[in-house]
Structures are given as structure tokens and as C-alpha cells.
Write a structure and sequence with these properties.
Blueprint: E1 3-6, H1 11-21, E2 32-35, E3 41-46, E4 49-51, H2 58-63, E5 75-76, H3 77-82, H4 98-107, E6 109-117, E7 122-141, H5 145-150, E8 155-165, H6 173-179, E9 191-195, E10 206-216, E11 226-233, H7 236-263, E12 268-273, E13 281-296, E14 300-307, E15 320-322, E16 340-346, E17 349-356, E18 359-362
Helix pairs in contact: 4-7
InterPro entries: Peptidase_S1_PA, Peptidase_S1_PA_chymotrypsin
Protein name: Peptidase S1 domain-containing protein
Length: 367
Amino acid sequence: MVILIRTTSLELLYRIQRRENGTEISQEQVGSTMTSGQGGAKKYLPDVQYITEQNEDLKTRLDNCPKKEHHKHFISMQTFVGNKWTNINARYKDFNQLPEFLECMSSLTGMIIVEEINKTSHTTTTGSGFIHKIRRVNQKDCPCHECSKNGNQEKGFAILTVTTVLHVFDKESKKALETGMIVENWEPKNTKVRLFYDEENEENKTFIYGYRLLETDKEINIESDWCSVECVTHDMELVQELEANLNKYMELQGEIYRKSKELSLNDLVIIIGHPHGGPKMISVGEHTNKKILKEVRNYQQWCSYEYDNITCFGNSGSPIFILGQPLCGFGYWFGHPHNHSKCFTVDEKEVKGGCSSVGVEHFVETN
């Protein structure tokens, strides 16, 4: 029998986060502990990265990571370009759309950067997110940070909806979800998303800028910190490129889903994100558990996944591709995909594996 209990101990989080970056974490960030008859206690920890003066250097964050022995399982974008089947089992080679699909998924994945500046400190929180909707706004002043700062607003812009998890923006995300009071001190100017950050020494930096927090999942007795944030840009060449990638992503996603039904393969999990606030990395694994939380209208279900992929601080909000998943959203049905949320410890030791936010799936076959 599995018993779910809430932990009040901060000892483990303090030890891990202080060792990595000297930042204390509020009690609201502590996840849950699952105790079973075998294998000890499994604890869920938010996978955000906090950057302070003590760990500004990426190498310091990597060296201090309690899971650094597993970093070898990450796939850099340079490695992916050289071999697009790296770490993917040969039995998936029939999915010939997969390499191009992952290219599109990567291009739509960004590093979320949230600055928190006060009189005594400057903390940067990083997570990951995925652009899943783009809407153009014509003949109106662009509200992005750069236009506001320069006092010369461009005409015409686009709103890009980025899916992620709420604890990237709010250390007390559990309280925010319980009360409906979402991040009262969040300001758009403190948030931006860096795109195409594929190499550490990349000179060209591309950003889209925070506009507003759009929505979260709020449901009694269902633990979910999924959310989306709207960002803006007036770079219409960038918008055109992202629109093409998103359209191709959705097209290939449908083809892969139909192929997975033919081949009866549905356990592959691929996560793309920015561990430790560094360049984009790919993580390949399999899902180990699916938890159905609620069945809702039109044959939909709210569910979450556990998987054995390597993730690290900074992966919170990373998009997750789950082979064979009858995904809602993206114009198919109502709903949204899953994003990575938390990592695991077992008996207070960091291990590979993590769990997703709540997502929405269609649980009957459709033509």
C-alpha cells in the first residue's frame, strides 16, 4: 500500500540548495514523501535553479550538483546534431519522424529567467518552458521590456504562450494554488525567456519578454503547479520562424502518435530543458508510472507521469514528449501537455527520475 504524506522537514532541501548556491528555500517548496513497503522513502523536490553571487559560474553549479554523476546521461545539442538517435533504443528507429520532431521541440524550448532584486541581494531563478501558442497583434504598440525602456515602441508584435510550472515564478506556489492569489509580487519586467541557447559560449542571445501570467491548474485535492506565461516580441522574423516550427511540431506529433498505435510502443520519454541555467540538454528515458487524478468532460483525464530520465535544477517546466500519449491541446482537444516539475530523492539520496505536472489526455481512440 502506498501512503502519501506531507513532509515538514526542510533539512534535505537546505543541504542540497545551500551546497549548490547558498539560497534558502521556503517550506512551501517542499514536495511530498511517498512511503512504500520497498525501496525506502521517495521525496519530490522542485527542480528550479537559484543563482546568486556564490554560484554565478556555470561550472560551479555543475560541480556542486548532487546528481553530477548522472550528468553523462544528458545529451548536448552538439551531440544530438552529430547523432540524432543518441541514447534512443533501436526499437524506436521505425519512428523516422522523431529526429525532425525533436529539432522542432528544441527550437520551441527556452530558458525562463526570473530576476529578484532587493537592497541586499540579487537572485536569479531559472527554469524551462515551451512555446505552444503564438498570436500576432497588428498595428498596436509593442509592450516588451526593450520598447518600454527605449521609449520607442514598435508597431505590431506577437504574444507567445509558454507552458511551464508555477514554482519557477513563486517559491510559495502551493499556497498560491490553494488560495488563488497568484504571485502577487510578480512583475513582467523581471521575466524573460532565452531561446536557442544551445551552446555555452553562444554570442547571439535571443529573448522574448514577460507579459503576464496566464493561467494555472487550480483543483481541490489535486496537486498541480502547471501554468503558462505570455511573452512578447516585435521581432517578426523570429515569430515567423517559431510559427513554422510549431506547425511542423504539431504535424509530426500527430504522425508519431498514429505510428505508435500501429507498433504498440508507448514508453519512451524525452525531456528537453536547461539544467543548471546552462545550455539546452536532452534527456531520454521511459515512464515508470502514470497517475490518473481526475476524469473530466469529453473523455479527458487529468494525469501525471513519473519517469527515469535524468533531470537537474533548472529543468522545472521542461516540455516532455511521451510516445503514444493521446495529447490534448495544440488544437486537437481542450487541454495542455505535461511539463517536468520535480525530481526524486530516495532515502535522502539524489537519484535519476522525476515527475511531471498535471496534463490533460484524451483517453479514447479517435479517428
